[in-house]
Records
---
Amino acid sequence: MTNPVPRWAAGVCQGVHGAGSRDVVYVPDNPLSHVLGQLRERLPDVRLVLATREEEAFGIAAGLFLGGKRPTVLLQSSGLGNSLNALTSLLIPYRIPVLVVVSMRGDLGEWNAAQMPMGRAVRSILEAIEIPHVTVESAETTAEVVRVAGLRAFETRLPAACLLPRRLTTGA
Amino acid sequence: MTRLEATRAICTVAGDAAIIASLGHPAYDLFAADDRPRNFYTWGSMGLASSIGLGLALARPDVRVFVLDGDGSLLMNLGSLATIGLLHPPNLVVIVMDNEEYATTGGQPTPTAYGADLDAAARAMRVDATTVRTEAELTAAVAHQGSRVVVAKVTESVPTAKPPLDYVGIRDRFMTALGGVRG
């Protein structure tokens, strides 16, 4: 007997796959564990690469793209702060696309004050560095929103972000 | 051995390998030594050269990947050694041009000047590693099957040329040279 897979997590997997991404570089967080488990079980053609830090994940993703792949990076919003130099001095100037899937902290349902400042700033930071972002509003639309964000990245050759709010991932 | 001499030695044995160069002096010397289409010059993202090389090595197992890193740069991203040790792609060699200083920013000493040992750090992360001091040792060390870190103890040499500031041009030339891929 297997644990039920949250519908939003299955949707993330479908969206990543539907955008043509077969390489997922990640730094885990709790909600993303559902996505990672589903990718392992259901999509064996997706390669999972664990990074020690989010900035490193974007470096690995850049190399994957240079080798002809369509990379996805999964991270928690706190890790966006660790990623800014990679995004602004590598991916954006060299026009290296990555589908960025962000598990949000600091939004509705947050219990940890240490997560609040970055959580509040995520959208402003993405806008300041001109990375487009979209927020998934429901489990039903997750697959399509993630897929379209991925296509935007790979077709425009720039990173594009898809944000997963806590009310989606934890039911907060 | 100066860094430029070491870079030239690598280029003589690189063949059709892809070379990822860390920003600043390692990239400048690679451009001066041999401006090959399979060179990828970074102009930022300090610390990430080995990560870019790892991603490329995973994506293209048919391509040998050399990374020209710096000691200061690798110290910014030591976690990369753990990831390389975990995945150990057989086609990745990270060459650390260890001049024991932040040469690009004015020659401030790095921790390797005081004994920090990147060879030992790589081994601790389960990456094969060796330290070389001559061009003959260097060219022998990079001719290796299996992921490896080669710490090349070099002296600083003042770069005389810089690659173009055409980021997308660097990317497109590199990807075209690797073939079979779309930019």
---
Amino acid sequence: MKKNHLIGILVIAVAIAVIISTYADSSTYADFRTAQKSDSELHVVGQLVKDKDLIYDPLTDANYFSFYMVDNNGVENKVVFIGSKPQDFERSEQIVLTGKMKGDEFHASKILMKCPSKYTEDEVEIIEVTANSNS
Amino acid sequence: MEIQFVGENLLPGNIGQFLVVLAFGTALLSTIAYYFSTTNTNELESNSWKNIARWSFRIHSFALIGIVAALFYIIYNHYFEYYYAWAHSSKELPTHYIISCFWEGQEGSFLLWGFWQLVIGNVLIRFAKSWESSVMTFVCLSQVFIMSMLIGIELLGQRIGSSPFILLRDAVEGPVFSRPDYLAFITDGNGLNPLLQNYWMVIHPPTLFFGFAAMIVPFAYALAGVWTQRYKEWIQPALPWALIAVMVLGTGIIMGSFWAYEALNFGGFWAWDPVENASIIPWLILIAAVHVMIAYRSTGHSYFTTLFLVYISFISVLYASFLTRSGVLGEASVHSFTDLGMSGQLIFYILAFLIIGIFLFVKHWKNFPITEKDEQTYSREFWLFIGALIMTISCLQVLASTSIPVYNAIFGTNIAPPTDPIQHYNKWQLPIAVLIMLVSGFSQYLKFKNTDSRKFYISIAIPAVLAIFITAGFVYITGVYENLMYIVLVYASTFSILTNVKIMGEAFKGNFKLAGSAVAHIGFAIMLVGALVAASQSEAISLNTAGVDFGKDFDAKNKRENILLWKDEPVQMERYMVTYLGDSTSGPNIFYKVNYKEYDKNGKLKDEFNLFPNAQINPKMGLIASPDTRHYMLHDVYTHVTSVPKKEVHSPDDGHDHDGNEGYLDPVDYTIAVGDTIRFKDGRIVLLGTNTNVPLRDLTLAPGDFALGLIMQVNMFSGEQYTLEPVLVSKGGTEFSLPKVEDAIGLRLNFSQIFPETKSYKVMVQFKEPDPQDYIIMKAIVFPYINLLWGGTIIMVIGFILAIFRRSKELKTTL
């Protein structure tokens, strides 16, 4: 009996570790103001500011894309993405960014955008783009 | 007032809808009849219940096949009055992709699942003998739930299921649907998601769903065993089924990852996406279950673990389908289905099977043949149990993190998934993989019951030491030494391969029975090493050194992997000289021709190949880029475009005058006869002959009229060959020409005059202006040793097949 009890305790310990690790690695949905105070990567949800400059000039740099996004609390911020501009980015109606603040700029490592479907209003589609992978 | 709609084909839909209701009803009747056949102690009555159940299931089979046929008929004939055909197909799709349209939607994929469950049910009726009634009760109950997803009727104000036969005008609102002739405006369907227009998407879903469907069988045997108080006997017949499910599901999962690698542009084969995780969890649990099933069968240990894992394996299938189908993943995954409002039904499906299991376990708990004895440490059954436990922990970790959106839905929290999922999962799964490899290696030298520990250590010493040298060599060649854990995993896998190779060698000498597990273990180990090397050593060679400098800090983390390639301007990328040579259009796809050249030290051309990564400018989804990959024995070169300049779309080769000279240089006139050659910068054009029988699309020629084509062959210096046939038509005394255009080389030929006396012809040759904006932005990645991953998978599947043969043979001798 002894050995099986030991194994049981070990499994429970690992299970607890799994839960802690999940919680520790999980991120939060935040706004730009919280991101300003935080050092870790987090998710910011918002919309593209359509009347501000959207910079992607592959002729000078194919890996630099910047735009302005307003978060759900109405705070506007410049976003920089090291990678190419996702096609039809202008059409997006909601954006989820993963990344962190670098000075005044938000550096995104991943952009997830929701676009209105062309055909049916009730369906939305989601497109995800990741910045150049870091192996 | 009812509107009389014009041109609708309502018959197939009506038949289909009727069959859906029939299939649901007969599945329900089968369940009830099988239930009474099992519980009835009177043999005569029990048999008559069984007969009812069988007949009902036969009718159910015909009805379900009828549903499949009706839906396929609708999609194949482009009846866009049906929502499903409109939403998932279009006219231009070739037939083999029409098959993919069938399961693009949730309804179709439920239908596929139901279809496989039906096939399995019929096999059980034929072969399960004394187990038929009790096992089929559960299979039929599952079938009832799946059919309920397709019914699409309202009951007490609640819509149950979603019918694939719903009409477009009922599903979508719009003013056009108040017109009786609305169908005239619905000229084409929404089309199939371009990412799914891939060969692998034709065979991956049926394989995967067969695996999921087969998982009900071991589950049904386990519960039937408890229910009919045959607590031990169920394991024997359930084992081959569990192996079949594991084999097919594993194949299906790896097909999916091969599809992701070949057709998607995320640059890899596994990304720990929730949808991928949802498919691997049931697989791992069932593999764990198979191991303890064998332990229990041979020694009587681990009874409850066996029962519990088999039970939870099918529950995890249901949970996985809830995750991917209920829309709960929402922002967490790009691949899940959209919500059809069936979450409630899916939860009910899970709860029903969960509760039946718990009820049976609690009721029969006292009778379970659980041994009080501890296993010996040096025994195979103990380590089979430990192995199963480790795999369960692996699942638990994947499950805990994948379910984050579910916690949010239940507790109203707002937790986001890990920002770097790959790192998060690998942190756990790497050490777990090491443990699994070690256990799968040394436990091959353990016997059931007890083993002489001295002998055991002596026999594992040789492979353990040998593995050190092989690991050192392998790690040196492949370069996986930046992380200690990688080296440890390579060592553990090598150790496992060596020990299992020894067992396999013995098996071929006589003890053939053990070959299955040894081969499967070898395959799995090779697969892990392949995945490790390919994923950790994959290297973007398209590194961009130009552009804005962000400082070291930023660059270290984000490599600048997109590179701009001007047309015809070679760029050196590591060992390759890469040139973008231009694009060509085929159907909805634009193919970008990218040339790779490799030179040796003396500047001699060693290797050359072209890749054609393509992009589809989809009106619905924007740019859909698909990679193209050059496969070598030891590495792959993978390329896809990430951005392309927007180009004017014009319809090529429409047979009539292109307006003016837009984009073309001034024409040059040549007067040539048959056999003459026109030279130009990149090649030669030869007039091969004339054609008096030109097919004319919308012209009819009267006597005296004529149409003459010139068969002109273009031979490019680079080796390509094109044939163009410009035509001159004379109709009613007026002459006009039909020029021909070859977009790939930007050439336009216009046949403008005939000189009958010299038998020569005047041809205008025009070239396109070089496009100043012709470039692509692309990414190129080298994946080393990825063939180990695919090869290992094939070996593993072969191992499963051997094991299935062995276990089903045992079954025949004992039944």
